[in-house]
């Protein structure tokens, strides 16, 4: 009886842990997705429109106007452009290095930190499910080794618990894995857009 109560308590704890892991993983994935969306231009045309406006102000020598174009836009490219314009006297090569560092530290590092929690959940959810599997099988074998008449109903419950926790662990990990790959794809696209945008911006600054 004591063993049955212990397995019951552990079972509830595992269900609770799986629920907590699932909610934390979903929360982190949503945060990262929103962070990437708030940081990047949706497409190359949108970024080109921003750079066209910036080039127009720079061509006319209206540095203050060019800064105004960037200052209220919190996306990565405008903020990097703002830094480049404000430090344009330092030379193109030095600015290029500094922009790469700022993009890595201020943008990518934050996103990668948040994304690492999603990776942790992807790895830990199946392990928690496996723990439930082990606990369920332990309960089933404890029933078999009790030395009394085997309670087939209780044994079926233990095996069902083992299978359910395994399924729950995988059900948490698989969608998050697909979401993570989608986020990585958006990050790579953002890196390509920012690299192209910075090349164009630096070329414009060299011509001024």
TrEMBL record:
A single GO cellular-component term on record: plasma membrane
Membrane-spanning intervals of the chain: 6-33, 124-144, 159-179
Pfam families assigned to the protein according to its UniProt record, in alphabetical order: MotA_ExbB (PF01618)
Topology versus the membrane: Multi-pass membrane protein
Cellular compartments annotated: Cell membrane; Membrane
InterPro entries (UniProt xref): ExbB/TolQ_transport, MotA_ExbB_proton_chnl
Keywords, sorted A to Z: Cell membrane, Membrane, Protein transport, Transmembrane, Transmembrane helix, Transport
Residue ranges of every copy of the MotA/TolQ/ExbB proton channel domain listed in the record: 87-192
Gene Ontology biological process terms from the UniProt entry: protein import
Similarity field: Belongs to the exbB/tolQ family.
Name this protein carries in UniProt: Colicin uptake protein TolQ
Species: Botrimarina hoheduenensis
